[in-house]
Specification:
The first copy, chain A, is about 35% helix and about 20% strand. In chain A, a hairpin with a 2-residue loop joins strand 10 (about 495-500) and strand 11. The first copy, chain A, starts with a helix and ends with a strand. The first copy, chain A, has a seven-stranded antiparallel sheet, with no helix packed on it. A six-stranded mixed β-barrel of chain A has the order 15-16-21-19-17-23. Chain A is of the alpha+beta class and about 650 residues long. Among the domains of chain A are: about 435-530, Immunoglobulin-like; about 530-649, no CATH class. In chain A, helix 4 packs parallel to helix 16 and helix 10 packs across helix 12 (about 260-280). Chains A and B meet through helix 13, strand 14, strand 15, strand 19 and strand 20 of A and helix 13, strand 14, strand 15, strand 19 and strand 20 of B.
């Protein structure tokens, strides 16, 4: 694809995508009916909403010890989720609730545009005093995203005006001009938000500010050293010990690997991709590809999760993939999906969307319960009673099962998965002039403008349970356009037909392109072969040697104790065993499960000795039929063991 | 064995055991020439020695932030190691050095007998104010052990007088009598030390105090709650969250499993066994067996290490044995060996000595470098560059190789392994009247008193490299006694001869007993069959499923990258492969190595993809000859991977 096409390439927005049935319709229903109200209730209960009006009334809503400096971001993400939901499912009561929150936010804005609940209420002198650790710019980013989404959803620009004033205040404060502070956020996020704000308002200062934040990051003399000295602290007292934690150890353009806190990293990288696209910056494109390849070819789990360590909530080193203690924060998987979508628009190639889809269907969706009101922070690949990937105190007293919970002290993940589910339409299509890309397959209708004429594509499928997808074309009169259908990386065999006539096409950069003049009633049938696959890990991943994972279509599978009994480490799936997929209507409203014959090794000598010499031990292998369920659904039934990687023989 | 014999059963002391050649002679030489001087230098450099005289002169030896409340224990353990060394290898210069330290200690003693450097110097009001966290009684225990050893080694009772006065002060302060504090140590150790002091001095109050500390532990109302309130703190602020950490969650006699901080646990359990023996307490015997069985049958690593978690430096739950992050503190293995020896005297059975030997030769000895001047705190079973079992910050910046170091901020392990090596003679024999138990096989001569007559047994062997052991009996005139020779749990075949005449005897409770009238020049030949064994883990240990360890005699083996190349997780030792042992004179002054044919699995498709479907991958198995070395010697050559558990097929 040439640069000209790339430059015009843009996502189709969720407002163009109607989802009325199928996999995502049900997830969005639960999100609307359960998740969004549940999060609102928590925002209210915890004082996060009262804090906004508290700024003006000087009322601290809760005991000081629980008021935290990242509170505002939770409101911002909830408003964003609400906005996406209102875009596709108008709801006057919900809008009224959101409008009241917006009014409270507006009431908290300072004369100069500054907007924050924590510092005015609890620590006025702290304003902008510690960009490294305090979260003012992170909060600003999420509020800006919420404001842009709310404007787009409702046409009501009040919140956007508030956040534009705050963005102006930030722009007046930070930058390389004389008299400005040369700071940048310790927790990136605002970069991508400022690009959204620029796109919505057309105000180039916001794009310039985003670019400044990226380019100033990690420059010497180091801003975080300077501000620490200003606070009377030593840089050596930095709790995280290294600026790698916040990707500020070196100027960004000199980075060669993804590192540090994984959510910080992926938000930053998504912002870099946005700025690269908007400023046509070849160096940032090179950097984006480099970081993407490092992360996805050396540091990503099979479920699309990233950041193995709870110590830094982030990256460790290449091929380091502990399973039980895999941190893999829900927010990091979501941020990776965001970044993948942006990479596609910067460098059109299906490989970015392959990772985006992997992260969405597996390590992001696992972050929320099937019921919609409980959440994971960490998304491990093996679960064992008594092990907690969040790294809390290990002692038998607290050795319960790791489970989803309704809320966290730092509840960044719940509203994040909520906004992703509500906006899945944003990730489904892209358009570049007369070319329409289909990224995600699910039941929906998309309305497009091709060369000034209306096109409706109706997509019908049971994906991800089935690889058969059909498209019905609706146009008023014949219309030439290119339909680019994604052939996922997991698919080695597909059949394609237009109006029943088989098409023999090869995928290029992950897409087959049907270029023709389309007429009303034209149909496309795509059949993606979706056998059960055994996934083998890279041999450098020491933690999975000799083990396989099961995947079918975009879904990774896992074995749970409730289906397969305990001691899953002793289960082996022989190489020659046939694996079958079947749709189980009784499970979670209908999901495909994988079954096959497995071996379970057991000692039959009755000894309780921990260690015995081979010559003294009898081992018996028994056969049983295992059942694997989609990974994202684990921990929704009885507590017990879970394994993604299973020994093979 | 009946109770009468058990009651008379006692260890033979190291002063009776002359070690002039072989495995332990060399370890003791390095200990004398390198380790003991190196530790002295660190005690001096860090201000630990100056602190003793500082109490009287009110001079704080270092900046306050590095002075710590456990300092005194390091001096105590060093003096103990010195005493053991002087017992067998008199050294006037070393004794003079120790005497100067003892004089400084004496100068620090308060009027009422209280002895401590930290509190008089830095926090006078802190005396006895926080038994839960502060280490006054733990320090006292180690100083008492040092004093008893020094008295026994040199006949110089000055330090013993000082510590007896401190013990009297402690006895005046704590107890169930009216007017005394009902406290007990947060870090057990003093219990076993008080029994040593009782045995040396004959003063029954010390035994009674040891018993009080054991029985008061965990009683309600809880002393640590009370003292927290006295300090103006809430019990809920306890950093460790649970009194299980210090084995004070319930009265000791109600405990059903080993838990909490593993060094605290094993010192406590050793003290319980001592008190059980001295007070003939059947309930404490029952408890000791219960805790021993739980720990050694559900919570012990194959190298005898205990306490898998760095979070609490201790236990987690049954069968939880992570390998890379195995904490297995050197001190915990040593404490387990101490406890095992005491269990044998309480309940004469070789199974306790089997564990003692396992812990000494593997997870204790691994704590010190072959050169004698570097130490491990944690003793993991798998090493991989970038992984640190001490649980420090995980980021590529600090992702070095885990290696032994010369010293620690909390250097409990260095003098502990030093005192164990110096006192190996204490663990080699026991005697009960006319029965002589041989527990450990190594080159030495032991001098015994049997029914008032002198007996010398000269033991010659290349153990642990070889299972052939010969004994030469020296008596002035014929002497009846029973020679009880331990048949280790790892040995399934042995040959025994007296004066060349084969003996057909079965082992009972781990020992074969040769009962006869012995004459000068009688000889015994014991040949323990010592093939290379494949060790299989209990199937409940999920982390080692499908893997084997290699053991020969008492030694556990490991593969290091320097011998076997990287990616050891991809190495498999097939079940049918013959494993050979050979003595390599070029390695570490001569050690047995294990070799055999192994498979290495490698992807041959050239793909850099992290995850590939089985159908898309080519895997090639290549054969090579692996070399395994004794585990205790790992990390003495080039940095790199190490594995104890290797995949089998």
């Amino acid at each position: 694809m040439d640069a000209k096409v790339a430059a015009r390439l843009a996502p189709v927005t969720l407002r163009q995508v109607a989802i009325r049935d199928g996999f995502w319709a049900e997830r969005q229903r639960v999100n609307r009916e359960i998740t969004i109200p549940a999060i609102y209730q928590k925002l209210e209960e915890t004082g996060r909403l009262a804090a906004w009006s508290g700024v003006r009334t000087h009322e601290i809503p809760r005991e000081r010890s629980v008021v935290h400096m990242f509170w505002d971001s939770d409101t911002g993400k909830w408003l964003e989720a609400v906005a996406y939901s209102l875009s596709t499912h108008p709801d006057a009561a919900l809008k009224a609730q959101a409008d009241a929150v917006i009014a409270a936010i507006e009431s908290a804005q300072q004369e100069d545009g500054y907007l924050n609940t924590y510092f005015p209420l609890l620590e006025p002198a702290g304003r902008w005093a510690n960009l490294r650790d305090w979260h003012e710019l992170y909060n600003a980013g999420h509020l800006i995203e919420g404001a842009v989404a709310y404007m787009q959803a409702t046409g009501d620009g009040k919140l956007l005006e508030v956040l534009s004033r705050f963005a102006d205040c930030i722009d007046d404060t930070f930058g390389s001009d004389d008299g400005k502070l040369r700071g940048y956020p310790g927790h990136p996020e605002i970069e991508l938000a400022l690009v959204k704000l620029y796109r919505e308002t057309g105000e180039k200062r916001y794009l310039k500010l985003a670019k400044y934040f990226i380019d100033e990051r990690g420059q010497a003399p180091h801003y975080y050293d300077w501000e620490a000295t200003e606070r009377g602290e030593s840089r050596d007292d930095y709790w995280a010990k290294t600026y790698r934690y916040c990707q500020a150890h070196a100027p960004v353009r000199e980075h060669t690997e993804a590192n540090g806190h994984s959510v910080r990293a992926c938000y930053l990288y998504a912002g870099i991709a946005d700025v690269a696209l908007e400023t046509d910056d070849a160096e940032l494109l090179r950097l984006s590809r480099l970081l993407w390849d490092d992360l996805t070819q050396q540091q990503m789990y099979v479920h699309g999760g990233v950041g193995p360590s709870h110590h830094n909530e982030g990256f460790t080193f290449a091929y380091d993939m502990p399973n039980e203690t895999a941190y893999c924060e829900t927010c990091a998987a979501i941020a990776l999906a965001f970044w993948g979508q942006r990479m596609f628009h910067l460098d059109p190639d299906g490989r970015y969307i392959d990772i985006m889809e992997r992260a969405i269907y597996n390590s992001s969706l696992s972050g929320i319960s099937h019921s919609g009101d409980e959440f994971f922070y960490a998304n491990p690949l093996t679960a064992y009673p008594g092990v907690n990937p969040q790294g809390r105190w290990h002692d038998t007293l607290e050795a319960g099962q790791y489970r989803r919970v309704p809320w966290f002290f730092c509840p960044c993940c719940p509203p994040n998965i909520s906004r992703l589910i509500a906006s899945i339409g944003d990730y489904s299509y892209s358009q570049a002039g007369e070319r329409v890309y289909v990224h995600l397959y699910h039941d929906n209708s998309v309305t497009l403008d091709v060369a000034g004429r209306a096109l409706e594509l109706k997509q019908s499928t049971q994906y991800p349970w089935n690889g058969a997808i059909s498209f019905a074309v609706q146009v008023d009169e014949p219309l030439p356009f290119e339909l680019a259908l994604r052939i996922p990386d997991w698919c080695y065999d597909f059949q394609l037909a237009v109006n029943g006539e088989a098409q023999s096409l090869l995928a290029e950069k992950g897409y087959v392109v049907l270029a023709r003049e389309w007429a009303a009633g034209d149909s496309v049938e795509l059949k993606l072969s979706m056998p059960v696959e055994r996934v083998l890990p890279h041999p450098n991943i020491r933690q999975t040697a000799g083990q396989i994972a099961l995947q079918r279509g975009p879904l990774l599978y896992c074995l749970e104790e409730t289906d397969n009994g305990p001691q899953l480490a002793n289960v082996q799936i022989p190489a020659e065993v046939k694996l079958e997929a079947a749709f189980d209507t009784a499970l979670f409203g209908g999901v495909s499960v994988i079954t096959g014959e497995a071996l379970r090794s057991e000692r039959s000598d009755g000894s309780s000795a921990l260690y015995r010499h081979r010559s003294q031990v009898n081992i018996a292998d028994s056969r049983f039929t295992f059942r694997a369920i989609p990974y994202y659904l684990w921990a929704n039934r009885e507590p017990g063991e879970m394994r993604v990687w299973v020994r093979s023989c």
